[in-house]
């Protein structure tokens, strides 16, 4: 289980780093930047916010990569970093004025909304944090069951170290 979690984190880290480099390389000179693979970075609210968002994604990418490498090597710091990564992915929120979502490779999301409970699967790499007003089809709060399972496994493995 440790190497499975580490593999997910390493792959996620490499993908997010590649995405950040691609965003910077392909659109750095434009006043509006949008790439629909991992996250949407929009400089329409100003350059500072766009670069802060971009650096946040880069930090998350680095966290995934380092966490995965150290976890693969069975280092204690790898367990702590991986726990932080799973905590970041654990809760999802979508409202008209707030959006928070992180997912790496695969997720099983149990969502509670005004229409009831439902489950959905995510595949891919996603990150979004926004406090800007946005149109949403549905307001929900969710929990990533895969992140929860990985978090429990990591805590149990860490206790045995």
Polypeptide structure, described:
The chain has 161 residues and is α+β, with helices and mostly antiparallel strands. It has helices at 2-27, 47-72, 76-90, 145-160, and strands at 91-94, 99-113, 116-130, 140-144. Strands 1, 2, 3 and 4 form a 4-stranded antiparallel beta sheet that branches. A hairpin with a 4-residue loop joins strand 1 and strand 2. The longest helix has 26 residues, at 2-27.
Q: What is the element layout, followed by pairings?
A:
Layout lengths: L1 H26 L19 H26 L3 H15 E4 L4 E15 L2 E15 L9 E5 H16 L1
Helical fraction equals: 40-55%
Which geometry do the CA atoms define?
globular
Total count of strands = 4
Query: What is the average of the pLDDT values?
Result: 81
End-to-end Cα distance: 15 Å
The secondary-structure class comes to alpha+beta
Order of helices and strands: HHHEEEEH
Number of helices: 4
Radius of gyration equals 16 Å
β-strand percent reads 15-25%
Low-confidence stretches: 29-45
> Mind describing the biggest β-sheet?
4 strands, antiparallel
What can be said about this structure in brief?
Helix content is 52%, strand content 24%.
Main attributes of the structure:
4 strands; 24% strand; alpha+beta; 161 residues
